[in-house]
Amino acid sequence: MARKLGFALLLIIFAATFVRLGIWQLDRAHLVQQISIPVADKVEVAIESLIKPRISIPDDAKGRLVSAYGRYERILQAPNQSTENAGVRKNWQVGILKLSNGAGLLVVRGIGEVAPPNENIEVHGRLFPSQIEDRVVGSKLSSELSRIDSTVLLSKVDFDLYDGYVIATSENPDSSIERVPAPKPVVKAAGYYWQHISYVVIWWLMALLALCMPLFKRRSE
Questions:
Q1: Backbone angle region of 64, left / alpha / beta, with phi > 0 → left and psi within -120 to 50 → alpha
Q2: pLDDT tens for residues 81-110?
Q3: How buried is residue 220: exposed, middle or buried, by Cβ count under 10 Å (0-12/13-18/19+)?
Q4: Shared-domain flag, residues 10 and 58
C-alpha cells in the first residue's frame, strides 16, 4: 500500500512540474506578443549631456531622443541602407556635425542629395549604436561609408567623434530632404510565439501522460 501511495505521489509531482513548465512557456509566449509595443520615450536631452566622444554608447542611451547644435563639416553617402520594416535599400546622406565642444557627430540627414545650409544648424533625432556590418564592400570613394560607424572615420578627421549616429527627425533651419524613419526601441524577448505555444502543448501532454501511467501499468498487468 505504501509503495502504491509513493508511486502516486511521485506521478503527481511530475505532473505538477510539467504543468508549471507549461504555464511558464505560456507566460513567455505572452511576453513575445508584447515586444511589438515600443518603449515609452524619455525627455529629449542634449547629446553632450548623454554620451562622451570616443566612448561606447551605454545601453540606456540607445534609442534616446537627442538634440545637437553645430555645423556640418562634411557630407557622406551610406549606400545600401534599409529600415527594419522595409526591404527597399536606399542611399542615406550622412553628415559629420561638428559641435561647439569640437567633437563630431554622425547624423543621418535623410535620403537624397539635398545640401545642408552653410551655417550652424540644430538637429533633433534618435540615437542609435554604430553599425557593425558593412553595407558595401570594396568601395574606394572617399565620400562613401561602408557602414555608419565613427571608427571608420577616425583616421580621416582631425577631431574626436561620438560613437553611434543620430537619425535626424528635424533640422532647424529645415530642408526639403526626405527623412529616414527613426523607429522607437522595443522590448526584446527570446523565441517566437508559436515556438513557446508548442512547448506548452508538449509539457501539458507530458503531465497528462504522467497522470495516465497507472492506467497503462494496470492494462499491461
A1: beta
A2: 886 555 678 899 999 999 999 999 999 999
A3: exposed
A4: no
Residue with cell 523565441: 191
Grid cell 511521485 is found at 10
Q: Is 49 found in the same domain as 155?
A: yes
Radius of gyration of the chain (CA): 27
Say if residue 196 is exposed, middle or buried (CB neighbours under 10 Å; 0-12, 13-18, 19+).
buried
**Backbone phi and psi for residue 112, each to the nearest 5 degrees, phi listed first:** 120, -170
95-97-100 Cα angle (round to 5):
175
Residue 200 has pLDDT above 60, yes or no: yes
- Whether 84 is in a domain gets the answer yes
In this structure, the answer to whether residues 21 and 90 fall within a common structural domain is no
Segment 163-179, tens digit of pLDDT:
999 999 999 998 889 99
